[in-house]
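From the thread on structure requests for the teaching lab: each student submitted one protein with a one-line request. Submission from student K.M.:

"Model MFS transporter from Enterococcus larvae, tokens only."
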Amino acid sequence: MVSAKPVTQKLFPAVPFVLTNTITFIPYLVFLTMHTGTDMESVLPFVLFYTVRMTGIFLLKSFRLGLATLHVLILSLISGGIGSFFGILGEWWSPCYLLSAVLLGLSAAWLPPANTTVKYQRKELEVKKETNGFFGFAFLVVLLGLFLGALVLDFPGKRLVIFGEYLLLYVAAFRGIKNYPIPDRKVDKMDQKTFYMKEFLLFLVYFILLIIIRLARAMFDSEYLTIAIIGFSAFLIIAAWYINASHRKWKLPVWLNLLSFINGMCMNYVLLFGTFYTAFYFGNQKIALYLYVPYVLGIVASKLLIRYIYQVFTAFDRELIHIIGMIGSLLLMLLPMIFPFAVFSLSFFISGASTYLNQLYAENEELPQNQRIIIKYATQSKGSITHQFLLMTGLWFLAKEFGLSLNTVLQITAHRSSSPHIMRVIETIHYLSIGLLLYLLFFVLYDRIFKNKKITFEE
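Reply posted by the TA:
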């Protein structure tokens, strides 16, 4: 009789991949489906998960507490496991969804950077790399198939199935890391400080603004939207002044910081604006099939195929491949008839760029060792949050320009109207969003080619 232990060891490498690449948006979709009205009970789980997921990385940067990254990884797995358990209980007692949303939000914020950092630490310690092999790959396909099937199909107990899958994955991941080594190193001087007021204030500002704007969208209240836009505009002015005064002290080149920032903006463009666009052009029932399935498939394809893209275009530096790939994908997004393919392509290069940026940050000795990947994810989150507020501000101004009420903006974000006026607003913001992202990518391309030398590192 074959022992089950070797089989589970072969399957384990697929588990962290599935968790880190789905935990940021599948619970988001689950809590979104619960948002069926404007009462707080149905609104709060979604609002809490999204806000904690987006701002949790800044909370992690604020309180370092001398923890090794492995401890942060363990905390994120425990948080996610308990959150999944409360999600299951929520099927019978709905207040459990509130605690589930907060805990899963923390896990979604902390798990990807912690898991990536531990991966690089294991490489430094020359720990044998775990490979998926045939069993792991087959297991990966089955897991992703279950998640995608649960997203596309509508059946009783849908949330129970998804939270149950996540609980099993978190338990498996927790069991798999018990033998992970902790790097034996002296605490970096930059790591000795345990509380960072600037990062904590950033967490508070983002948290409050996101809560307000999400409540505005969830409760259909235009006053909340106006308050959030005014607050963000004031914050943007202060942030622009601060960046102008301090960017010369940055330890990383401008193109690298900005590419991480744009990567976050592109993610938000696909997952947030993509839902509006898909709903109005193809219908609400097509969002999962035309948007989320291509997005997930793009991530998987990138992990499997990006190395072959590098081999084909050996004459180009890798960051140039990703920049050009994102530019081409954004241009494809202008063509509605191939929208799902464009989403797949943009997701492919976003995921590839994220992995490559992880490598660049992990190899940079100017940054504190335990904070390198966290800094990258924080920069990426800043881009995602900034794009969201720019998008909502753009919708707000366009509604006024076209003589529409502010509730029109909320109708767009809730996919509740298909009037010709709203279609004009969506098309205009679509072109403006792509134009802004293209402008920033061309700026990075210029800065990378003509101003800054390439960062080199050993494979």
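TA comment: The two ends are 41 Å apart (CA to CA). Residues 1-187 form a domain with the Growth Hormone; Chain: A; fold (CATH 1.20.1250).
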